[in-house]
Amino acid sequence: MTPLADTHVHLLAGLDDGPPTADVALAMCRMLVTEGARHATALAHQNPCYPDNTADRLRASASALASALAEQNIPLSVYPTGEVMLAPTTLEEWRAGHLMSVGDHKQWLLVEMPHGEFVDVLPLAEALKPEGVRLIIAHAERYAELLDDVALTQTWIEAGCLIQVTARALAEPGAPEFEAALKRWAKGGFIHLLGSDGHGIERRRPKLAPGFARLVKWVGRAHAARIASEWGTAILRGEPVQVPAPCPLGRSWFSRLFGA
Ligand SMILES: [Fe+2]
């Protein structure tokens, strides 16, 4: 079995619109284990709607969750993470220590767009580079400006960004055009990480396995495992990760990877 890594799941009880209680958070963790996950973000939003979500608060809450998981013998490793909403002040907030990086390793920031907006991440990516910090674009499939423009996606990846996609979008894309665009991303090597964006046990459940299965179908088991397991696990643990450059259109990621 491929031990999946959920790089986007809200597990910090009462901190945002995720699990309201510790019991619900633990139930979500059990669901994730059933899905095949062994590593997951203990994540909460960091945006103006949740001004109390300081890095210290996320750190403490993730630590409490890790203890509860150990007590209950639930085989899931969790890593404190902020889902940071991009703002003109993001760089300043990072430098002031207000933002929680992925796994608290100070290597990756998981960022989402401000509500109803699409902003250029390149200035922030460039500003963070000398500090050894890179960006992960959370649930990147939500942004048509990016999904429909592989040249732009490529530019962001070349600037050091990684692309995270939601498992449910892969498994149940709905509109054929949306599915075609996701498939183009997957086959072109534009997808690096998988997340459930799970929020609870009633709605927005932490489903990962169907998304992984769809990736296996589109890009084969070995590459699907890089996306759904290897790269995510490395990032959550703070280990180095190297992803191949996406391919120019018309060349498969496979030929790019192996120089065929
Ligand atoms: Fe989220």
Folded structure, characterized:
- It is a single chain.
- The protein is of the alpha/beta class and 260 residues long.
- The protein has one domain (4-258): Metal-dependent hydrolases (TIM Barrel, Alpha-Beta Barrel), CATH 3.20.20.140.
- Helices cover 42% and strands 15% of the residues.
- It contains eleven helices and seven strands.
- It has helices spanning 22-35, 55-71, 90-95, 122-128, 144-147, 150-158, 167-171, 176-188, 209-219, 221-237, 253-258; strands at residues 4-6, 37-46, 77-85, 108-112, 134-137, 162-166, 193-195.
- It has a seven-stranded parallel sheet, sandwiched between helices.
- The chain is globular.
- The two termini are 29 Å apart.
- Fe (ii) ion binds next to loops.
- Fe (ii) ion (FE2) is lined by residues 8, 10, 83, 197.
List the helices and strands and how they pair.
Blueprint: E1 4-6, H1 22-35, E2 37-46, H2 55-71, E3 77-85, H3 90-95, E4 108-112, H4 122-128, E5 134-137, H5 144-147, H6 150-158, E6 162-166, H7 167-171, H8 176-188, E7 193-195, H9 209-219, H10 221-237, H11 253-258
Parallel strand pairs: 1-2, 2-3, 3-4, 4-5, 5-6, 6-7
pLDDT below 50 for ≥5 consecutive residues: which ranges? Answer: none
Ligands bound, unique: fe (ii) ion
Gyration radius over CA: 17 Å
* General form: globular
Spatial strand order of the main sheet? 1-2-3-4-5-6-7
CATH class: Alpha Beta
Instruction: State the distance separating the first and last CA atoms.
Output: 29 Å
Structural class: alpha/beta
**How would you characterize the largest beta sheet?**
7 strands, parallel
CATH superfamily: Metal-dependent hydrolases
Q: Mind telling me which CATH architecture this is?
A: Alpha-Beta Barrel
Helical residue percent band? 40-55%
Number of domains: 1
InterPro entries: Caps_polysacc_synth_CpsB/CapC
Protein name: protein-tyrosine-phosphatase
Keywords: Hydrolase
Family: Belongs to the metallo-dependent hydrolases superfamily. CpsB/CapC family.
